[in-house]
Design brief:
Helix content is 37%, strand content 26%. It contains 9 helices and 11 strands. A 6-stranded parallel β-sheet has the order 3-2-1-4-5-6, with helices on both faces. The longest helix has 14 residues. It starts with 5 loop residues before the first strand and ends with a helix.
């Protein structure tokens, strides 16, 4: 059974509210904090606890015992860049083991990293990029960027692969990618064997460079 975790969400923007709800739906405990009473009231039915408070006040923040949480998500956005940086710093100083902070631009992100934030996210930018990729490459369902131009991507199986096995296709040599897993209906085939045959509707989890993954998607679309 997966261990239940505790999360502190500071700032109930659309991003913060979405993260808070998703974490709770996954079975974790969430304390959601914002100084806007309407935002706190709106999220209340969907989280473990919601509190109206000013997280930029160090004493207020420490009253939540932030170090007892598995992670804090600083979702303060808009024009409140200074508040975002201050709350992120207070979380690190209070001993939160993992701090995720929302950034509005690269300069904001640079300062957050200097503060020691463990992960900086750009929700609007990232969603825009994902939508653009989905429109241009509809066969690529999800993509995670790694170092050195490598990607992990979920790709609908190309028609030319259906009915053939990994060894028949010689995927690593011909396509320069590794097949990590196959989603098949409700089943998940991890590290598929060389004689695994692809079926209609399979979603393939690939590791490779973006150009090679794009090439596979282009083959699926017959372009």
């Amino acid at each position: 059974m997966r261990k239940q975790k505790q999360f502190l969400v500071l700032g109930l923007s659309r991003f913060g509210s979405s993260v808070a709800r998703a974490l709770c739906e996954m079975g974790h405990e969430v304390l959601a904090v914002d100084r806007d009473p309407e935002a706190v009231e709106a999220i209340a039915p969907y989280v473990t606890q919601s509190v109206q408070a000013d997280a930029t006040d160090e004493e207020v923040l420490r009253s939540f015992e932030p170090a007892s949480f598995d992670a804090a998500i600083v979702a303060i956005g808009g024009v409140d860049v200074a508040d975002s940086m201050l709350v992120s710093l207070l979380c690190k100083e209070a001993g939160v083991p993992y701090v995720v902070s929302k950034a509005i631009d690269e300069l904001h992100a640079k300062v957050l990293r200097k503060i020691g934030v463990d992960r900086v996210v750009f929700p609007e930018r990232d969603m825009g990029q994902r939508l653009a990729k989905a429109l241009v490459m509809p066969g690529i369902l999800e993509m995670m960027e790694l170092a050195d131009d490598y990607q992990i991507a979920e790709v609908l199986v190309p028609d030319g692969w259906i009915g053939r096995s990994l060894v028949q296709l010689n995927i690593r040599r011909v396509y320069h990618v590794n097949v990590l897993a196959i989603h098949r209906g409700k089943a998940f085939v991890a590290s598929p064997l060389a004689d695994t045959v692809f079926q209609q509707g399979d979603v393939v989890l690939l590791l490779g460079k973006q150009d090679d993954i794009d090439s596979i998607d282009s083959q699926r679309r017959g372009s």
